[in-house]
Amino acid sequence: MTTNAQARMLCAAWCLGLLATAGCAAPMRVFVNRQADMTLYQKVVVVPFANLSGDPYAGARITRAFTTELVIADRFQLIDPSQLLGELDRAGALPDANGQLDPAKLRDAATKLEATAVIRGAVTEYASRGSGTDTYPVVGFDAEMVDTATGNIVWRVSVTESGKGRVPIVGGAGERTFGRVTEAACQRAVNELRKQAF
Q: Is residue 190 a contact partner of residue 66, using CB atoms and an 8 Å limit?
């Protein structure tokens, strides 16, 4: 095989790879507070994410998936969510139906649990897009880590992931389920945070 033929095949393979991943993920937005001393944040608590979507279970689903990715990253000692909910219950400050919490009571509960930071978030999208039989899941959320003592944002990430975009010839099935899209969005977010903040 000639060098030109090899170059054409390599270019064709690269283009197919680009097509296979095109449309899978929207750009991610990440903020990292460069003045924050990341070594201070060892023991953190994950607050159930607020739910701004139309799906009543979206907040819980994203919270669990994001927490799973944090456990896999092995960067923080995560406080058991039931301990946080217990402290919030004693303070009469459990989350409302949308997952909203009183910030002062949340800070007090986190301090009692000796958490140096709180990770919280909000699900902004958890729905199907498209028309007719051509629908696909879309998941979007924001997450941030806030210093318990100061209330300063340590890092913040905003991610949207779509279930459409894979080319069946190259990447298998052309659609992904809500579960897979949720997992992919949380993996992307935590992996980017590992690069920039952890």
A: yes
Distance (Å, whole) CA 102 – CA 166: 42
84 class by beta-carbon count within 10 Å (0-12 exposed, 13-18 middle, 19+ buried): buried
DSSP class per residue in the chain = --HHHHHHHHHHHHHHHHHHHTTSBPPPEEEE-TTS-GGG--EEEEPPPEE-SS-TTHHHHHHHHHHHHHHHHT-SEEEPHHHHHHHHHHTT----TT----HHHHHHHHHHTT-SEEEEEEEEEEEEEEETTEEEEEEEEEEEEEETTT--EEEEEEEEEESB---HHHHS-SB--HHHHHHHHHHHHHHHHHHHT-
Task: Report the DSSP beta bridge partners of residue 46.
Answer: 119
- Determine the Cα–Cα distance for residues 139 and 179; give it in Å rounded to an integer: 10
Taking only the tens place, the pLDDT of each residue in 50-73 is 999 999 999 999 999 999 999 999
Q: In this structure, which topology does domain 24-196 adopt according to CATH?
A: Rossmann fold (3.40.50)
What are the pLDDT digits (tens) for 139-161?
Answer: 999 999 999 999 999 999 999 99
